[in-house]
From TrEMBL:
Keyword Glycoprotein: no
Stretches that traverse the bilayer: 164-190, 223-241, 375-395
Gene Ontology CC terms, in alphabetical order: plasma membrane
Biological processes per GO annotation: protein secretion
Lineage of source species: Bacteria, Pseudomonadati, Planctomycetota, Planctomycetia, Planctomycetales
Keywords: Cell inner membrane, Cell membrane, Membrane, Transmembrane, Transmembrane helix, Transport
Annotated Type II secretion system protein GspF domain residues: 70-191, 274-393
Protein name, UniProt field: General secretion pathway protein F
Chief location bin: membrane
Highest taxon, organism lineage: Bacteria
PANTHER family hit by this protein: GENERAL SECRETION PATHWAY PROTEIN (PTHR30012), TYPE II SECRETION SYSTEM PROTEIN F-RELATED (PTHR30012:SF0)
Family statement drawn from the similarity comment of this UniProt entry: Belongs to the GSP F family.
Subcellular location: Cell inner membrane; Cell membrane
Length: 401
């Protein structure tokens, strides 16, 4: 059923904005009028159109909310409530993209579709792992338990967030704005000051001459440097937009010193958690690895998992395939080998994910502890040098006069 976005006023005069499922705009307007809403504008929501950044943010928020909503849906089902009634109750608790998605699910379930089929029709909110787990739960008759497992998976994945990017955010912020402040001082503050001092002094101190040379270079070549930076940015975006370029960059990032091993453990922890939870829910290893590959952002690791899937289909061994690719740590490869032999691969992968997550937390904490004082000292040296370069000629000019 189509979804329409509307604007209007309620019986209390407050402005309202939301969405409604209806066969047509007129039917939606009539339904809202029965609810006491005076509609001022109503239009269809076309989700197939190109999404703006605001819509992307809303969809990301809906995906994050689904982790909590899955647990709440499991609780409602355990009370004996039907799936259609439980989804309708859940939709009333949320706003935005998730509310629209839940209302569509309610309409589809009421029309006879399964929960998994309806979720699959909205991939911008429900990922492939969620759809597959819902299908398993419906087929096995334990949808409430499987949804609870799904909620745990989503919450654990949120805990396994991008800790490296979070740890580097403050140092990069400090470095970026510090360098920007230095460039501003070099190009706008220092040149007129030195121009006045040159009329008074016959010889300028060497720190001032160095600062003057840098300042002159930035002023004379500022436009060229800006164009070059823009060109490099465009080239970088173009490389990232290609599959081959993205794969090359992702592989090189994993080879970086210090950060590379942390990123590998972070990604392997996420893969191991997804695989462990999916296997525990009864999904076969081959299909679980396909779903885990879809949830992996790094294209090199995604190709590694795809190669493992191909080897499994040909009757090969997962551990051997992982070892051939050379990206997974030896411990992870050993866990796959032992887990397959013992039949406890799901439990061992979950323990591996927890262990790697703790290692990543400790490593990122140490990295932040090292980077912050280093960058502060670096900026202090730059500011101190600029201060000396500025004060020395001023003091000499005072002695001359």
């Amino acid at each position: 059923m189509p979804v329409f976005g509307y604007q209007g006023t309620g019986t209390d005069g407050k402005r309202l904005r939301g969405s409604i499922h209806a066969e047509s705009a007129r039917a939606g307007r009539d339904s809202l009028r029965q609810q006491g809403v005076t509609v001022t504008a109503i239009r269809p929501i076309d989700e197939s159109a190109q999404r703006s950044w605001l819509q992307y943010v809303r969809q990301h928020r809906a995906r994050a909310q689904w982790a909590v909503a899955a647990h709440e849906l499991s609780m409602l089902l355990r009370t004996g409530m039907g799936i259609d009634e439980a989804v309708a109750t859940l939709a009333d608790q949320y706003r935005g993209g998730l509310r629209i998605a839940l209302r569509r699910i309610h309409d589809d379930v009421t029309a006879g579709r399964s929960l998994a089929e309806s979720m699959a029709m909205q991939p911008h909110v429900f990922d492939a792992a969620s759809v597959r787990l819902a299908e398993v739960g419906e087929n096995a008759g334990n949808l409430d338990a499987v949804l609870d497992e799904l909620a745990q998976l989503k919450q654990r994945m949120a805990e396994f967030g991008d800790k490296v990017a979070t740890a580097l955010m403050y140092p990069m912020f400090l470095l970026t704005f510090g360098v920007a402040a230095m460039i501003f001082l070099m190009t706008w503050v220092l040149p007129p000051l030195l121009e006045n001092l040159q009329e008074t002094l016959t010889q300028i101190p060497w720190p001032t001459r160095i600062a003057q040379s840098i300042s002159t270079f930035l002023v004379n070549n500022g436009l060229m440097l800006l164009v070059a930076s823009g060109a490099l940015l465009v080239i970088g975006v173009w490389i990232l937009s290609t599959e081959r370029g993205r794969t090359w960059i992702d592989r090189q990032v994993l080879k970086l010193p210090v950060i590379g091993p942390i990123l590998i453990k972070q990604n392997v922890a996420r893969i191991a958690m997804v695989l462990g939870m999916l296997l525990r829910s009864g999904i076969p290893l081959r299909e679980s690895m396909q779903l885990a590959a879809r949830s992996t952002r790094n294209t090199s690791l995604r190709r590694t998992l795809a190669k493992c899937v191909d080897d499994l289909s040909a009757g090969g061994d997962v551990a051997a395939a992982l070892q051939d690719q050379g990206l997974f740590p030896p411990l992870a490869i050993r866990v796959f080998a032992v887990g397959q032999e013992s039949g406890e691969l799901d439990q061992m992968l979950i323990r591996l994910a927890d262990d790697y997550n703790q290692q990543v937390q400790r490593a990122t904490s140490r990295l932040t502890t090292m980077l912050e004082p280093t960058l502060i000292l670096f900026m202090a040296v730059l500011v101190g040098f600029l201060l000396v370069a500025t004060m020395l000629p001023i003091l000499q000019a005072g002695q001359v006069t």
